[in-house]
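> forwarded from #structure-qc
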């Protein structure tokens, strides 16, 4: 657990439009909010009592709204040695990616320890999937203008989260991916101790913002639509997020790479590196075959197209190599069409979405696990799973991946380079002694990311947030 920047007050930074007068205005805002609570009787703010205003402050649109507050006089109960109530908030409530899997592990793990956990998610991508959420907020919908307005301020989420706060009365709120809720969820929960885990690019992460756009990985230039989206994110949504983000009690992120990006983008905030944890799985014996496995969401930024190109370069020198692709996503149809000849030759198989136990089993059949991402991954769960089952990894040299993969347990290559990827795979496949040595190093690395130690760290941060 690594504290990077413990300061709570922030200087003006980068394109922050609030300027150096932010501190004084924050104090005025808090005083006005306190007077408003007093006018309402000094208790929690009900949804019908909330007053939301959209202001222009130093050239930026900023939403001001009263936060919901605990009914008790103290901000939270003492967390040491007692069961606590944690409200978890995430955009998607089914396991479509690593962030969602992490929240499910947190929920299950904390409940095993006797804590009460309530998860709120939107219903986006929940159709036909098993959800771990206790409560669903309707996903943002409507015509283009309505969706833009609701991403800027989603009153339904503000009201429903506020009602959950009043009912559940959490000791701490743990926010995860919040793009489907927008700044409204930060405003609603601002009266409680807040812990925010940053799993990937968000609307307010300026230096990572382009990776939220569909054309970022597909071309050297953004599409006209994505140029407009980028402008909206940077000059409308980002300024709406920043005042609320700078009041969050603690910000966590699994990798140093993302911590550095957040520090550049937001300034001096209470920022901590807390690597994700994972349930223990036993290492698997190494397969005799040349078998490469990819597991993840099928979208352009994951680099599966690059992996298919690398396989074509590899086949002339390793005709027996096979690739298994596990996962689903918007790019699946295009990828299957582009690999039709490889599928017909039984060199590639697309397995689709698999349950977690089946993913682990499939990773255990690999000689090497490939992570050919184009975008800067944070701390991908599949990498942790590959470490646990004792598999070498060949990964792109981007984001937090170099914190998980090194020369002892695999190889790093330039993102988007099919040639480098093919060469790295060729250097490992067929060399059983090397693969076994690297697999043992992966198992050793996995020891750093035990679930129970991760939960210990979260309990520590909840306690510190409540004491702030």
């Amino acid at each position: 657990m690594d504290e990077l920047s413990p300061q709570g007050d922030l200087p003006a930074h980068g394109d922050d439009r609030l300027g150096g007068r932010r501190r004084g205005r924050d104090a005025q805002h808090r005083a006005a909010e306190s007077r408003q609570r007093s006018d309402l009787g000094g208790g929690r703010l009900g949804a019908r009592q909330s007053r939301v205003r959209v202001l222009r402050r130093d050239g930026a649109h900023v939403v001001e709204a009263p936060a919901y507050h605990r009914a008790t006089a103290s901000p939270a109960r003492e967390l040491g040695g007692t069961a606590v109530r944690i409200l978890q908030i995430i955009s998607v409530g089914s396991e479509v990616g690593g962030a969602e899997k992490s929240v499910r592990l947190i929920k299950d793990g904390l409940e095993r320890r006797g804590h009460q956990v309530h998860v709120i998610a939107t219903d986006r991508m929940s159709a036909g999937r098993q959800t771990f959420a206790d409560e669903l907020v309707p996903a943002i919908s409507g015509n283009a203008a309505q969706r833009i307005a609701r991403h800027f301020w989603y009153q339904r989420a503000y009201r429903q989260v506020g009602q959950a706060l009043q009912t559940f009365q959490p000791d701490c709120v743990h926010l995860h991916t919040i793009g489907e809720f927008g700044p409204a969820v930060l405003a609603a929960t601002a009266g409680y101790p807040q812990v925010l885990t940053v799993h990937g690019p968000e609307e307010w992460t300026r230096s990572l913002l382009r990776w939220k756009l569909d054309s970022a990985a597909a071309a050297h230039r953004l599409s006209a639509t994505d140029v407009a989206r980028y402008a909206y994110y940077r000059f409308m949504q980002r300024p709406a997020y920043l005042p609320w983000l700078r009041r969050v009690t603690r910000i966590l992120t699994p990798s140093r790479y993302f911590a550095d990006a957040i520090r550049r983008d937001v300034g001096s905030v209470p920022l901590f590196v807390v690597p994700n944890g994972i349930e223990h799985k036993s290492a698997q014996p190494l397969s005799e075959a040349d078998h490469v496995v990819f597991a993840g969401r099928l979208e352009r930024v994951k680099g599966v197209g690059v992996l298919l190109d690398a396989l074509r370069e590899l086949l002339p020198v390793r005709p027996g190599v096979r690739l298994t692709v596990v996962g689903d996503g918007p790019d699946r149809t295009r990828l299957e069409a582009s690999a039709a000849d490889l599928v017909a030759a039984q060199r590639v198989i697309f397995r689709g979405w698999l349950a977690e136990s089946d993913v682990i089993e499939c990773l255990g059949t690999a000689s090497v696990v490939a992570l050919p991402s184009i975008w800067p991954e944070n701390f991908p769960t599949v990498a942790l799973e590959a470490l646990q089952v004792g598999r070498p990894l060949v990964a792109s040299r981007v984001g937090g991946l170099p914190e998980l993969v090194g020369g002892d347990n695999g190889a790093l290559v330039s993102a988007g380079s099919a040639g480098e990827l093919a060469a790295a795979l060729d250097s490992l496949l067929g060399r059983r002694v090397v693969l076994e040595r690297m697999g043992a190093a992966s198992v050793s690395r996995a020891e750093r990311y035990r679930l129970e130690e991760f939960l210990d760290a979260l309990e520590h941060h909840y306690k510190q947030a409540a004491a702030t």
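QC bot note: The chain is about 40% helix and 15% strand. Residues 1-50, 54-61, 73-78 have pLDDT under 50 and may be disordered.
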